């Protein structure tokens, strides 16, 4: 790859992807809301110009879901994903030399709450609720876009990595002595190391037979109880107080987020990647946590609240 366009490059995954590509001497251009981007969403002509001649476009744009799902936030979550994806599709259709591959973010939360079996791309059952409705509309805009290029929806599970991401709240809870199970602790927790997100994108680029939805998750998920145990173990904490469901729901209101983010059982199977020979750098949670801990400072870590 010589030139990659990243939409939503200011987020945690976008920053990591941008830095990694720069270290490989890949030219990176960006589309976003900031005037520091190479193109802003409000200027569709500029978006077309940025896309023209690129090899790959990765769309990660979308408002954080770590918030209360009131009407205002729900509308912003929906529009920040669906409207930008629709605009990107129109711009790609207008480009004279569009990229050969369009990778668009999606979410493993699109599947139902599952404690009975893993959800793969072929047999997984879609769920209900706001987050699922957003994901379905998001993917529909991608696959209905009027451009014939190859399209992949990254159904990402919870992304762990140092320097930010979804692990910080769990680290803080463990350091405060509250790192026990959440709810009954039996909900499945699918996760992926951020290095494997980049690795999966590289793998998809090199395998033109891959298209459609692709689950981005470690092949070895754990229960919430086991996840919190391993977080405590990595941090040298032997015990952590459990958090019952009622307290999670009460606390979620205080910090302006949704308890669903930790109570829903997400069991995501990366069948497409595994069947196509992808090798995970961090398939097991203990390995991922040890790597992250080496680059994680002491004390409480910053957490974005809704």
Protein topology:
Layout: E1 3-7, H1 12-23, E2 27-32, E3 39-40, H2 44-51, E4 56-59, H3 71-94, E5 101-107, H4 130-144, E6 150-156, E7 158-160, H5 168-175, E8 188-189, E9 191-193, H6 194-205, E10 212-216, E11 222-223, H7 224-235, H8 245-254, H9 260-263, H10 271-275, H11 285-294
Parallel strand pairs: 1-2, 1-4, 2-3, 4-5, 5-6, 6-10, 7-9
Antiparallel strand pairs: 8-11
Helix pairs in contact: 2-3, 3-4, 5-7, 7-11
Q: How is the CATH topology of the domain at 3-165 and 191-221 and 267-284 named? A: Rossmann fold
> Structural class, please?
alpha/beta
Q: Order of strands side by side in the largest beta sheet?
A: 3-2-1-4-5-6-10
The named CATH superfamily of the domain at 3-165 and 191-221 and 267-284: NAD(P)-binding Rossmann-like Domain
- Secondary-structure arrangement, i.e. CATH architecture of the domain at 3-165 and 191-221 and 267-284: 3-Layer(aba) Sandwich
How many alpha or pi helices?
11
CA-based shape: globular
State the name of the first-level CATH class of the domain at 3-165 and 191-221 and 267-284: Alpha Beta
Amino- and carboxy-terminal Cα gap: 37 Å
Number-wise, the strands total 11
Order of helices and strands: EHEEHEHEHEEHEEHEEHHHHH
Runs in which pLDDT lies below 50 for 5 or more consecutive residues are none
Largest sheet composition: 7 strands, parallel
Global mean pLDDT: 93
Helix content: 25-40%
What integer value in Å does the Rg equal? 19 Å
């Amino acid at each position: 790859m010589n030139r990659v366009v990243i939409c939503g490059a200011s987020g945690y995954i976008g920053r990591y992807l941008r830095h990694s590509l720069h270290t490989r001497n890949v030219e990176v251009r960006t589309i976003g809301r900031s005037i520091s981007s190479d193109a802003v969403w409000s200027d569709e002509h500029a978006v077309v110009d940025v896309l023209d001649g690129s090899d790959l476009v990765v769309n990660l744009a979308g408002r954080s879901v770590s918030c209360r799902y009131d009407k205002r936030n729900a509308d912003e979550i929906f529009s920040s994903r669906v409207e930008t994806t629709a605009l990107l599709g129109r711009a790609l259709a207008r480009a004279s030399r569009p990229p050969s591959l369009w990778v668009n973010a999606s979410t493993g939360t699109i599947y139902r709450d599952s404690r009975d079996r893993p959800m793969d791309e072929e047999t997984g059952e879609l769920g209900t609720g706001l987050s699922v409705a957003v994901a379905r509309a998001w993917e529909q805009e991608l696959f209905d876009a009027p451009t014939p290029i190859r399209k992949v929806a990254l159904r990402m599970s919870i992304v762990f990595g140092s320097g930010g991401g979804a692990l910080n709240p769990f680290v803080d809870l463990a350091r405060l002595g509250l790192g026990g199970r959440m709810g009954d602790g039996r909900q499945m927790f699918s996760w992926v190391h951020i290095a494997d997100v980049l690795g999966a994108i590289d793998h998809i680029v090199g395998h033109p037979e891959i298209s459609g939805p692709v689950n981005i998750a470690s092949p070895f998920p754990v229960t919430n109880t086991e996840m919190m145990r391993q977080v405590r173990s990595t941090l040298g904490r032997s015990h952590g107080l459990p958090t019952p469901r009622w307290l999670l729901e009460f606390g979620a209101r205080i910090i302006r987020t949704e308890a669903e983010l930790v109570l829903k059982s997400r069991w995501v199977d990366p069948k497409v990647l595994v069947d196509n020979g992808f090798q995970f750098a961090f398939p097991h949670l203990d390995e991922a946590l040890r790597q992250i801990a080496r680059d994680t400072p002491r004390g409480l870590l910053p957490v974005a609240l809704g």
